Amino acid sequence: MRGFASLLMLCLFGACSDAPEEAARERTKRTRQLAEQGDPRAQFQLAQMYRTGDGLEKDLSQAVAWYRKSAEQGLPIAQHNLAVALDHGQGIAENKAESAKWYRRAAAQGQVSSQYSLARLLLLGQGGERDPAEAAHWFRRAAQTGHRDSIYHLGLMNRDGLGMPRNLVLSGKWLILAAKLGKLEAQGAYHTIASDLTPQQRQVAERLANEEQALLNRPAPVPMAQLAPRAGRLVHRGTGQPYTGRALLHHPNGTRAREIELQAGLSHGWETIWFPDSRPASHTRFKNGQRDGLVEEWYRNGQLRLRGTNHAHRLMLATSFSADGNATGHVREGNGTLIIHHLNGTRASAHLFVEGNRTITRRWDAQGKPLD
Description:
Elements: H1 2-36, H2 40-52, H3 60-72, H4 76-88, H5 96-108, H6 112-124, H7 132-143, H8 148-160, H9 168-180, H10 184-194, H11 199-216, E1 222-223, E2 227-230, E3 233-236, E4 245-250, E5 256-263, E6 266-274, E7 280-287, E8 290-298, E9 304-311, E10 314-321, E11 327-332, E12 335-341, E13 347-354, E14 357-363
Parallel strand pairs: 1-4
Antiparallel strand pairs: 2-3, 4-5, 5-6, 6-7, 7-8, 8-9, 9-10, 10-11, 11-12, 12-13, 13-14
Helix pairs in contact: 1-2, 2-3, 3-4, 4-5, 5-6, 6-7, 7-8, 8-9, 8-10, 9-10, 9-11
């Protein structure tokens, strides 16, 4: 009787030990079926199995073949993995030019690792002509997600004037931020430029790093291209529903251009606009699709250009400033004139407001010639 019980336990143990293996075989079989039917995610999973040897005998050439099938259907992570294989000659002959092509496709879809890898190839001139300016574009895109090595590279490129004008304050910003995120080399690189900065410039670099870190600590916004206007609201192209959250548009050089906060497809919260060099251009509060609350605008030199308060889409109280900080106009209770200047001090525009609405605008070029 005891022997029978022991045999039964062994049989049960054997059945249990076979169960996970059987489940794994079924998973692999089902993944292959879906992949062969053209499912891009199943194709990617099958490629992963071949690459790691999980459930299949490891075969890098088969992994590449299935990554390619998935990548050709537009799956960004498959495009990235195919690019990596081509970049390093894993399961296929090394081909930097084709690697850059697939990195670019994935990068355009927001694949951060591809944005960094593409920037690296462009910076080194691998797979095509060397293009530091475009490399900076993709480093900026990746940096805005908190990618530490991209942030570090921006610090070095600003320091050396590579792909962008040399700017030690911005270099300090990115190197300080990279150091805060744990990049040890960034701390040493910052110390090499700190002696060339005035105490005020070091404070500015620290402030800019803290501001950038605050942006990184928020949930990531969706690209503006994923939204479309419909019936006066912005809807998500994927879901067809009015979008709630933040959306971001970029300048051609990869820096942030415009970010809006949305609620049910309407502007609700802050809209922020930046110049291409990452300096803020304006900051406007919205409520249910209308300007309502604080509005601030800046000149390219960082000087405040306008500060005011909107109510129900009307500017009720405001002061305008010249590029050197002197008040140039006022709106009170919705009435008045605001005057904006060129950076050389000449008048650029005059805006007449009546009951909160702009009624007349006159403009001049930097030499004082009327444009209207």
